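User: Let's play a game. I give you a shape written as tokens, and you guess the letters that built it. Ready? Here's round one.
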């Protein structure tokens, strides 16, 4: 049976009359990565701060490694919670070198130098270990922040939007690298992010937080393929509501296809005109405005068409079918 490293049970946080977290429940197994995903303002950073002891809770209980650290009677200080934090901007000390930044949180002098060198090597920064943060790239600074958080060997690592300030290419590379480092080290991690790609790529478990409540939790595959509702589904990309065969199907752009308009398939096709075409490299995203009476005026359907296939022109009439629709 897998050990639970973090347990959040019925936790609420309020600022005055405003409830930010409402009866939040989640568990993080030891040695796993859990992503808390949600839009800005949903309460995910407040949740991380509450776990780290930087925000008092108004109800519920938080336990780390089997020890209760927050409830209605107890509030363990942040420095005694055994939680390492990687903030969004890294928050490195500008006057300290890489080595001294990494060693800052190691309380014991005994073995500190060896531990620092171990972390420097782990994150691949041996060649810049004597530089100060101003002389590092954005990706290097985030790796220093990760090494500093890992250096005291905490029970839990919390990462608060750690890649959001980086450009797209670097964000992808560093995301892969950080995931590898966390798994190589065997760390238990809680990643707070608004980016669904990060959540799906890095996590063993995804917890979807909306309006201060956990709307769904499960494996990345489960929350993507079987979202609890449309709001959850829309976090992971476009959703189409296609009225076919007497019912409304909620499907993603790659689950529908363009087809010639056919009278024999009436009821199994949504007919409309091409309103937009976007070239995305390996595919085109074709936007169709259905003309059927069953659709509201603002409804559009997005369809993924592989780049190797011919796409219609703007204004052309076309039909949309479910890709998995069985033949007549």
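Assistant: Ready! My guess for every position:
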């Amino acid at each position: 049976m897998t050990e639970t490293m973090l347990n959040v049970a019925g936790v609420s946080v309020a600022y005055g009359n405003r409830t930010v977290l409402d009866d939040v429940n989640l568990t993080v197994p030891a040695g796993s990565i859990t992503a808390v995903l949600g839009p800005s303002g949903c309460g995910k950073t407040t949740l991380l701060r509450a776990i780290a002891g930087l925000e008092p809770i108004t109800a519920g209980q938080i336990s780390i490694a089997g020890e209760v650290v927050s409830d209605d009677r107890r509030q363990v200080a942040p420095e005694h919670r055994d939680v390492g934090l990687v903030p969004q901007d890294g928050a490195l000390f500008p006057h300290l070198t890489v080595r001294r930044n990494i060693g800052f949180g190691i309380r014991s002098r005994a073995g500190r130098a060896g531990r620092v060198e171990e972390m420097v090597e782990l994150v691949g920064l041996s060649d810049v270990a004597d530089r100060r943060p101003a002389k590092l790239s954005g990706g290097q600074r985030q790796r220093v922040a990760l090494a500093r958080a890992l250096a005291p060997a905490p029970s839990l690592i919390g990462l608060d939007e750690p890649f959001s300030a980086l450009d797209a290419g670097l964000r992808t590379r560093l995301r892969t690298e950080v995931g590898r480092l966390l798994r190589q080290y065997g760390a238990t991690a809680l990643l707070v992010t608004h980016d669904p790609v990060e959540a799906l790529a890095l996590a063993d478990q995804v917890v979807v937080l909306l309006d201060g409540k956990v709307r769904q939790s499960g494996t990345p595959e489960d929350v993507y393929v079987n979202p609890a509702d449309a709001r959850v589904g829309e976090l992971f990309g476009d959703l189409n509501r296609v009225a076919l065969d007497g019912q409304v199907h909620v499907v993603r752009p790659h689950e529908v296809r363009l087809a010639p308009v056919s009278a024999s398939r009436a009821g199994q096709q949504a007919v409309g005109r091409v309103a937009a075409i976007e070239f995305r490299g390996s595919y085109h995203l074709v936007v169709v405005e259905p003309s059927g009476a069953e659709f509201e005026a603002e409804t559009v359907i997005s369809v993924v068409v592989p780049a190797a296939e011919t796409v219609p022109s703007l204004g052309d009439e076309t039909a949309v079918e479910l890709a998995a629709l069985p033949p007549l």
